[in-house]
Amino acid sequence: MRAPFSDLPLVLTEATIAAGPVTILDKVSLMFDAGPPTLLVGPNGSGKTTLLRAAMGLLPLTSGRISWGGRDNASPARRAIVFQRPVMLRRSAAANIGYALAATDTPHAQRIDELLALVGLAGMGNRPARRLSGGEQQRLALARALARDPAILFLDEPTASLDPASTKAIEDIVRDVAARGVKVVMSTHDLGQARRLGGDVALLHRGRLIEHAPAEEFFAQPRTKEARDFIAGELLV
Amino acid sequence: MTGEMSALQLVLTGDPALYAVVRLSLLVSLSAVLCAALIGIPLGALLALTRFPGREGVIVVLNALMGLPPVVAGLAIYLLLSRSGPLGTLGLLFTPGAMVIAQTLLVTPIIAALTRQTVEDLWLEYRDELAALGVGPLGRVATLVWDARFSLVTVLLAGFGRAAAEVGAIIVVGGNIEGFTRTMTTAIALETSKGDLPLAIGLGLVLIAIVVVINALAWGARRAGERYVG
Ligand SMILES: Nc1ncnc2c1ncn2[C@@H]1O[C@H](COP(=O)(O)OP(=O)(O)O)[C@@H](O)[C@H]1O
Ligand SMILES: [Mg+2]
C-alpha cells in the first residue's frame, strides 16, 4: 500500500529560524524516525509551532538544514499536519476529506467512509464541516491529514481547547494511528498528555532544544534544571 | 407605444413594444454581466493570489474604475467603434452588440475588484491548509473561487445592478433606436423628456420589479447553498 519512498527519517540539523533580530528556533538538531510518538513540550512561545511548520516544509530555515528520507527540498507527499486551529473548507465533512484525497490522487468514496469511521464521525459526512463542534472539527482535521496516507504526521496542540472527553477521543486516535505505523510528532503543553502518549519527549525553551529523551527517562531522571522545573510545574519564563 | 394608457394598463396588458424593450434590456445587461464575469473573476482571483511590483497600483486603479462614469465608458467605446475608429469596420456602433461591450467595460472593474477582495480574504484563511496539502497555483484559484461562490453571487448582483441601472453608456453607443436598441432606461429618459410620464413610470416599475426579483432569487440560492456547505 505504501509508496516506495518515505519522508523518514526526518532530520533537522542545527535548524535555525530568525525573524529580524529575534531567533525563534535556535540550532535545533533532532531526528524523527519510525516508532512511537514524539511529544514536543515547552511553554507558550518556546517554538513548538515554528518547529512543526519547519519540519512540514512550510517555513524556510534561516540556517541549518532539514532532510526528509535523505532528501532536501522533498515535496510533502508523505507528510501531513493538523494546525492548532485547523481551517475547514466551506464544504461538507466528506468533501473536506475528499479534497485531501484528490490532492494525492487516491481513489475516493470508500476511503472517505473509512476515514470518517476511524475518527468517530461515521454518518456525519454530509454535515457542513464548519458547523461541527470544536472536537469534531479537530477529528475531521485528523481524518483529512490521514487522507494523505502520511509516513509522518504533525499535530500542533490538537487538544489545547478541548474538554476531557474530546481530548480522550483524540488521544485514542493518535494511539491507533501510531499503532498503524505512522510516525506522530505532536506538540502539547499538557505534561500528563506527554506521559500518556510519549515514546520520547523533547523539551523546547526559548527556541532551543533543552532535552530530548525517552518518556520514562525524561520524567524519571531529567538532566537539566529547565526540565526538572518544567516537570515540577514551575513556571519556565 | 401610446402615451394615452396608464402605466399599470401598459404593464398588465403586456404591450408588445414594451416587452420588446424589457427583453432587450435584460439581454444586454445579462450578456454584459456574463462577459464581465468571464474576464473579471479570473482577473480578480489572479490579482488576489499573485504578488508583483505595481500590484497595489493595479488594485487602486481597479477600485477607482468601479466609479467610471457610464457616459465616459460610452464615449470610449463610441470612439473605438465609430466609422473612423480602430474597430469601425466591425459596424457595431448603434447595435445591441456595442451596448454589451460598453456595459462590459462598466461591470468588469466591479466584478474584478470585488472578486479580488473576496478571494484574498478567503486565501488568508485557507493558505496554510492548501500549502500543507501541496495544492498548486491553479488548484488554489479553482478552490478559492469555488468555495467563495456564494459571495461571488453577490458580486455578480452588484455588477448586474450597475448594468441594469445605467443609461449613459448605452444611449451613447446604442442610440436609443426604437425596436432595435431601445432599453428600459433609455426609453424612460426619452419618454420623460417627451412628457409621456405614464409610459416612463410603467417602465420604471417593471425595471424595479425585475431587479428585486433577480436579487431575491440570488439571495435565496445563496441561503440554500450556505445551509448546505456551512
Ligand atoms: N512570523 C513571526 N515573526 C516574528 N515572531 C514570530 C513569528 N512567528 C512566531 N514568532 C515568535 O516566535 C516564538 C515562538 O512561537 P511559536 O512557535 O508559535 O511557539 P509555541 O508554539 O511553542 O507557543 C514566539 O515568541 C512568537 O511570538
Ligand atoms: Mg503553538
Task: Kindly list the characteristics that best describe this protein.
heterodimer, A: 237 residues, alpha/beta, Rossmann fold, 6-stranded mixed sheet, 3-stranded antiparallel sheet, 33% helix, globular, B: 230 residues, mainly alpha, MetI-like fold, 10 helices, binds adenosine-5'-diphosphate, binds magnesium ion
Please outline the helices and strands.
The complex is a heterodimer of chains A (237) and B (230).
Chain A: E1 10-19, E2 22-32, E3 38-41, H1 48-56, E4 63-68, E5 79-82, H2 93-103, H3 109-118, H4 134-146, E6 152-156, H5 164-179, E7 183-187, H6 191-197, E8 200-205, E9 208-214, H7 215-220, H8 225-231
Parallel strand pairs in A: 3-7, 3-8, 5-6, 6-7
Antiparallel strand pairs in A: 1-2, 1-4, 8-9
Helix pairs in contact in A: 2-3, 2-4, 4-5
Chain B: H1 7-13, H2 16-49, H3 55-65, H4 70-81, H5 96-132, H6 137-147, H7 149-165, H8 168-174, H9 184-194, H10 197-229
Helix pairs in contact in B: 1-10, 2-5, 2-6, 2-7, 3-5, 4-5, 4-8, 5-6, 5-7, 5-8, 7-10, 9-10
Bound molecules: adenosine-5'-diphosphate and magnesium ion (MG).
CATH class of chain A: Alpha Beta
The CATH homologous superfamily name of chain A equals P-loop containing nucleotide triphosphate hydrolases
Biggest sheet character of chain A: 6 strands, mixed
Low-confidence stretches of chain B: none
What is the CATH topology classification name of chain B? Answer: MetI-like fold
What percent strand of chain A? Answer: 15-25%
Indicate the proportion of strand residues of chain B.
Answer: under 5%
The H-and-E topology of chain A, N to C, reads as EEEHEEHHHEHEHEEHH
Number of helices of chain A: 8
The oligomerization state is heterodimer
CATH architecture heading of chain B: Orthogonal Bundle
Helix count from the secondary structure assignment of chain B: 10
Query: How many strands appear in the DSSP assignment of chain A?
Result: 9
Structural class of chain B: mainly alpha
What's the shape of chain A?
Answer: globular
Structure summary, number of beta strands of chain B: 0
Largest interface: which pair?
A-B, 23 and 16 residues
Mean pLDDT of chain B, nearest integer? 92
Could you say how many structural domains of chain B there are in total? 1
